[in-house]
Amino acid sequence: MTIEEQAFALLAANRRTTDGHTYTVPSPDAYPYQWLWDSCFHAIVLAKSEPEAAKDELRALVSRQLPNGMIPHIIYWVPGSLHRYEWGTDGTSALTQPPMLAYAVKAIYEKTGDDAFVAEIYPSLMRYYQYLIDRRDPRDHHLIGIINPDESGEDNSPRFDSVLHVPDDILLADHLDRRRELIDANRTCNFDAEFCMKTHFWVKDVPFNVILIENLRILARISERLGKENDKHFLTLNADLITEAMRVLLFADGVFWSAAGADSYERLSVATWAHFVPLFAGLYSSAEARELVKNQLLNEDTFWASRGVRTVSRRERAYRPDGFWRGSVWMAPHWFIYRGLMRYGFIDEARLIREKSLALLERAGFREYFDPETGAGYGAHNFTWGALVTDMMDI
Ligand code: GLC
User: Fold this and answer.
1) Is the same domain home to 24 and 109?
2) Contact criterion met (CB below 8 Å) for 129 and 235
3) Cα of 242 to ligand 1 centre, how many Å?
4) 27 alpha carbon, distance to own chain's centre
5) Residue 229 falls inside a structural domain
6) pLDDT for residue 138
7) Does the residue 234 lie in any domain?
8) Could you tell me if 170 and 108 lie in one domain?
9) Which residues, 6+ apart, have CB-to-CB distance to 389 below 8 Å?
10) What's the 153 CA to ligand 1 centre distance in angstroms?
C-alpha cells in the first residue's frame, strides 16, 4: 500500500460510533477518545476520500458544545471508559484546542459543495468563535488567552516552562502534574476560566491566535455566502484586530513570540516552531518571510534537521530530539509549515517538508512523533496525524 492508501485505511480503522455519533480516535491505544483539533485534521483528510465521514466527525464534535459556546478539547464518548485524567466534567474536558473548525468545514465544502451541511453546522461555529472572542480576551486586548498548555495542542512545549515555573529538564509526569493543578484551579472556580485562570496561567499564544485569525476569515466568507452581514462584519473586524494586536504586541526581532499575562506581556522567549505558524495566516511580509525561511527554517543549527523540522530550536536548553513537544518532529506542525510555505510561494521548501514527512512515515510508520536527527518513531502507534501528508500533495 502507498502511504496515502495507508493513511485512509488508518482513518477508517480508527473510526468509532457511539450513541449514533461517528468520530475518529487519534490512536486506539494511547488516545481512545475524540480530540478537537485532531478531528479537524481528520475532517480535512476525509473530505477528499469519505466526505460523509468528515461531516459526521464535525457533527460529533459540535454535539458536545458547552452552553457557553466552548467546544471541549476531549469528548470521552464511551460512558464509564477509563480515562486516567479528568480534564473537566460530564464526559468532556473543560479546555479547548486550536480552533481549526472553520477550516475543516471549508475543506468539506470545497470537495462537496454541500450548502445544507454548512448551514447546519454554522450556528455552532459562530457560537464557538464568539466564545473565544468574548470570553478569552477579558481586557479587550484583541489577543486570545489560553488557560493551559494543553489548549495549545503542544502539551509539554518548553514555550510554557517559565509560566509553569518548571525547569527545562522537567520530567513528563511532573509536567503533567503541573497541568493538572491548573485544571484543579479551574474547577475551583467552577470553570469560569476568564476570571479565574488569569492568575494561574494565561498565555497569548502565537499559534492559537494565528489559527484563530485564519479561521475567522474563513468563517467570514462562509457567513457572507449565507447572507449574514452582521456576522461577517464581526468576524472580519476581529480577524483584523487580532492581526494588528499580534503585530504591535507580539512581534520582535523578525518573529512573533507568545506572551504571558492577562494584563501584561511577558515575552516567552523559548524559540519554537511557533515562529513559522504566522506564515499560515500570511502575517509576515514577503521580505520578513524570506528572512525567516533562510535564517531560521533552513538553519541546521536551529530548526532544520535531516529528518524534519524541529519543534524547538536545537539551540534551546530544553531541546530534546526524543522529547514530547520538546524538539521532536510532529506531523501537524509539518502540515502548518507546508501550508504556510505554499501560501508565500516557497514551493521547493514545501516540497522538502512533504518528502521528509513521507520518508518518516515510510521508515517509522504512523507514530506520534519522530526524532529529527535519526527519524526514529516515538509515542503512540497508529496515530492519525500522519494522514495529513495526503493534504501536502498539491505541488
Ligand atoms: C497529545 C497531543 C495533542 C493531541 C492529543 C491527541 O496530547 O499533544 O495535541 O490533540 O495528543 O492526539
Assistant:
1) yes
2) yes
3) 26
4) 17
5) no
6) 84
7) no
8) no
9) 3, 4, 7, 331, 335, 354, 357, 358, 361
10) 6
Do 187 and 173 fall within a single domain?
yes
Residues 351 and 385 in one domain: yes
- Candidate from 155, 180, 277 with most ligand 1 atoms within 8 A of CB, to mutate: 155
- To the nearest whole number, what is the mean pLDDT of the chain? 95
- Decide: 364 and 301 in contact? Cβ < 8 Å: no
Which tens digit of pLDDT belongs to each residue from 334-363?
999 999 999 999 999 999 999 999 999 999
Q: Which amino acid is at 227?
A: G
Number of domains in the chain: 3
Indicate which atom in ligand 1 lies nearest the CA of residue 156: 8
Query: What number of CA atoms fall less than 13 Å from residue 59's CA on the CB side?
Result: 16
Residue the block writes with cell 511580509: 285
Question: Which domain does 168 fall in, by range?
Answer: 137-214+239-269
Query: Hey, whose CA ends up nearest to atom 9 of ligand 1?
Result: 153
Residue 24 and residue 123 share a domain: yes
155 lines ligand 1 (CB under 6 A): yes
CA of 383 to the centre of ligand 1 (A): 10
* 225 lies in some domain: no
Question: pLDDT category, 189, cuts 50, 70, 90?
Answer: confident
385 CB under 6 A from ligand 1? no
Query: Taking 70 as the threshold, does the pLDDT of residue 387 lie above it?
Result: yes
Please report the atom of ligand 1 found closest to the CA of residue 26.
12
Same domain, 45 and 7: yes
Residues 200 and 165: their CA atoms lie apart, in Å, by 11
- Distance, CA of 131 to CA of 45 (rounded, Å): 27
Same domain, residue pair 86 and 23: yes
